[in-house]
Specification:
Elements: E1 2-8, E2 11-16, H1 25-36, E3 46-51, E4 58-63, E5 69-70, H2 74-86, E6 95-99, E7 102-111, E8 114-121, E9 145-149, E10 152-160, E11 164-169, H3 178-186, E12 196-204, E13 207-214, E14 218-220, H4 224-236, E15 243-248, E16 251-257, E17 263-268, E18 270-276
Parallel strand pairs: 2-3, 4-6, 11-12, 13-15
Antiparallel strand pairs: 1-2, 1-18, 3-4, 4-5, 6-7, 7-8, 8-17, 9-10, 10-11, 12-13, 13-14, 15-16, 16-17
This protein binds (2R,6S)-2,6-diamino-2-methylheptanedioic acid.
């Protein structure tokens, strides 16, 4: 099978070339586990499949390195847009992409005929506990709730961008034992579908810094849906305006929680190499 290795701010993906025959359902997860492995496989934070759609221009499926399927992936969908455009599978711009989180609209920014950056209309955030999902009171948004890990109480805000995110504000993100706390929050009993975990430091009304523990993947250099969730959590807690630059270890994304309640995310998409797997 052939693939293209791509990344959005160092959040890296193998995008599998479309195959003539549909794969059996369990093959998607198995391929993701095998190929995402950094020692025995291609090495990636996720495996992306390009599929036909009956309701949009194309359909994206994204699988985590542990074989689980994610509803949505912000950095991955920008790579998906670049893949589809640059290989002339579609020249639609905006490009409409079907995901498990709904249809997303991608505005492609071109340079010399190739996609350099993508602005994604990520749709509306989901803030009620049952939508995230989270166990507990469903009558209000999940803002500044307590969460105890190893006897230490954290305060978190939960946001779904189609996939679940737990946002914890801290004074200094560099001091957080990310891998340890991230893994424990991901599997906390409050989150029946597990969760992505973000530690966020507010720099100003228009800029934040964050570090990411991704559900099903671990520490990654960036998270597109997570950057949107972090900005929304910052607004809900009165910490920033609705438009901000989100600094991640792999680079920056521009996030805008528009007045119509849609979230716009803008960032680069990069192709690294293509290849074929053996066997
Ligand atoms: C964080 C992510 N890479 C993105 O850019 O939005 C999404 C990947 C999926 C994530 N690991 C999940 O929700 O399971």
């Amino acid at each position: 099978m052939r693939f293209v290795k791509m990344h959005g701010l160092g959040n890296d993906f193998a995008v599998v070339d479309p195959v003539a025959e549909e794969l059996a359902e369990d093959q998607y997860s198995q391929l993701a586990e095998r190929w995402c492995d950094r020692h025995f496989g291609v090495g990636a934070d996720g495996l992306i499949f390009v599929l036909p759609s009956e309701v949009a221009d194309y359909r994206m499926r994204i699988f985590n390195p542990d074989g689980s399927e994610a509803e949505m992936c912000g950095n991955g969908i920008r790579c998906f847009g670049k893949y589809v455009h640059d290989r002339s599978l579609s020249r639609q711009n905006p490009l409409r992409v079907e995901t498990l989180a709904g249809i997303q609209s991608l505005t492609l920014n071109l340079r010399n005929g190739l996609v350099e950056a993508v602005k994604v209309d990520m749709g509306e955030p989901r803030l009620r506990g049952s939508q995230i999902p989270i166990v507990g009171d469903d009558s209000e948004n999940v803002v500044n709730w307590p969460l105890v890990v190893d006897g230490i109480e954290h305060r978190f805000t939960a946001v779904s961008m189609g996939n679940p995110h737990c946002v914890i504000f801290v004074e200094d993100v560099s001091r957080i034992p990310l891998a340890d706390v991230g893994a424990k929050v991901e599997r906390h009993t409050l989150f029946p579908e597990k969760t992505n975990v973000h530690f966020v430091q507010v720099l100003s009304r228009s800029s934040i810094r964050m570090r990411v523990w991704e559900r099903g993947a671990g520490v990654t250099l960036a998270c597109g849906t997570g950057a949107c969730a972090a900005l929304i959590a910052a607004v809900l807690n009165g910490k920033t305006d609705r438009r901000a630059t989100v600094h991640l270890p792999g680079g920056a994304l521009e996030i805008d929680w528009r007045e119509d309640n849609h979230v716009a995310m803008t960032g680069p998409a990069t192709e690294v190499f293509d290849g074929a797997t053996v066997g």
